Amino acid sequence: MSRIGKSPIKLASGVTVSVSPSNEVTVKGPKGELKRNIDRDMKIEVKEGVLTIIRPTEQIRHKALHGLYRALLANMVTGVTDGFKKQLELVGVGYKAANNGQLLDLALGYSHNIIFEIPKELKVATLTEKGQNPKIMLEGIDNQLLGQVAAKIRGLRKPEPYKGKGVRYSDEVVRKKAGKSAGK
Predict the structure, then answer these.
(1) What are the distances in angstroms from CA 109 to CA 90, 102, 106, 124, 136?
(2) Which end of the chain is least crowded, N or C, by CB within 10 Å?
(3) Are 39 and 23 in contact (CB under 8 A)?
(4) Residue 112 gets which letter from DSSP?
């Protein structure tokens, strides 16, 4: 048995899970609603506030999907109850971030500003305090979408290893390399 796949998912009060005949799982909660198509072979059971996923055989494919879908459904349940947050930090002289609704305006040391459109499912906020690096806060119920958008923003100017300048997650540690003068 998969260690991850066999552990049940406890549903908080106010969370409802429904499975369609085509194996589309819908999770509704206080923060919203999420849908995901699950492989036809996997069976989903909801009993007494506990969600379990059952695999039909011991095939390698079924074992892999068992843990995957359990993790995805657990993230859906967490998303509709608590939601997810990611915070990005801009490290570098002249790096700025501002948002106007769902448009994020970034100055990252290029000859032009980068306008990045945030999907409507996510909330974005920027914070610029004196003496602190500018911060971008992303919030939403879909963990996969949130992580993908945060990774795209980080990819616009990845942290470089010599000075550490770039866009990074607030909890990320950037290992710095010694420069040319370190060898002398």
Answers:
(1) 11, 22, 9, 22, 17
(2) C
(3) yes
(4) S
The dihedral through the CA atoms of 73, 76, 77, 82 has a sign that is: positive
First to last CA, the chain: 56
Q: What is the pTM of this model?
A: 0.89
Q: How many residues does the chain have?
A: 184
Give the C-alpha separation, 8 to 174, whole Å. 36
Render 79-98 in DSSP notation, one character per residue. HHHT-EEEEEEEESTT-EEE
Torsion of CA 80, 134, 148, 25, to 10 degrees: 0
Phi and psi torsions of 171, nearest 5°: -100, 5
Residues 149, 145, 53: CA angle, nearest 5 degrees: 150
Query: Cα separation of 173 and 118, whole Å?
Result: 25
- What is the number of other CB atoms lying within 10 angstroms of the CB of residue 6? 14
pLDDT one-digit tens code per residue, 141-171? 999 999 999 999 999 999 999 999 999 999 9
